[in-house]
Fold this protein.
Amino acid sequence: MQPQARTRDADDMREPPDPVERGSCALLLRALDGAKYRSLEISIQLWRLNAPGNREWTQGDQLQTRVELLREGTRIERLPAGEYRVYSPYQRAGTDDPISFRVDGAETTHTLVVPMPRKHKVSLEVYDEEGRLLDWKEYTRYGRRRSWSGRRGPSWIEQRRRKQPVRWVRGSGGGMSVLCAHAGKRIGPPRAEPQPILVGEYPEDDKRGRTRSAAVYRFDGDRNEVRLTHYHASGGDRTYVGLSVAIGPIRDAILLPDGRKAVDAGAELKAACAAVQRTEATAPDIWRTLPIRVTVNLKGHEELEFEHRLGRKLTPRVLKPKTG
């Protein structure tokens, strides 16, 4: 007789409950912005430190509740006396969480000082072959926040452990990206005296994860586009530098094996420069050294990729037919 395979019950796939204790204490909690000292509305986690164990779990730090704090403060009731600490995923990345405090008696009043993400300006200087600033014609901006699921939270947690061996391990974790795009076109002619492009104002990262923004700018005439990637790490205003040159001569230097220009056969050429951040150590004319990445595609031929640099002599490049 064939032994029957054991069927996993749904309860095997779930960790046992870890109910919080209730008590007779109350906490009136409010939060202030660490820079402006203004009252905040913010989501927080209230952790009870060194909470006693129970039938399933050992002693350790326990998430007592999640709360939306109001500007005037929020009252949290039925808390057991003890030491507590607050964690907020909306706090500025890289900053220390508020220190612990004690809750005891009929009502404890406590004020948190929370370092919040600050805004910074991002600008872009794009130069032509002669070192003149260019005014943008059109752009596409992208924003992406990468957050994580699974076991993420306060780094200071003293973990509670299951007393019984785990019978079933359920996968967790992973990343999630949220992507949005915004496009725009210039109305009217370019400015007589172009200025650095104001890309936008961006908040610094919070503890939910790292944020990256990107933008692509295009310019009048047959020129390469400029791509900018900006990480929202802590810091002040930032300026990036890019280069946009006429790509007609580059296009004319791409040939077919029979000597004809590849563009005449319908070849698609893309050229882009990746902007770099200007720092105190950056040379004033760093735009001269920036490479332009060129990609050429034509049906029936291998893709051609190469870098072009300002002042470098253009040598003819021949597309190779695909074999097989």
Notes: The chain has two domains: 22-114, 119-150+174-318. The CA atoms of residues 107 and 279 lie 52 Å apart. Confidence is low (pLDDT under 50) at residues 1-13, 168-174. The radius of gyration is 29 Å.
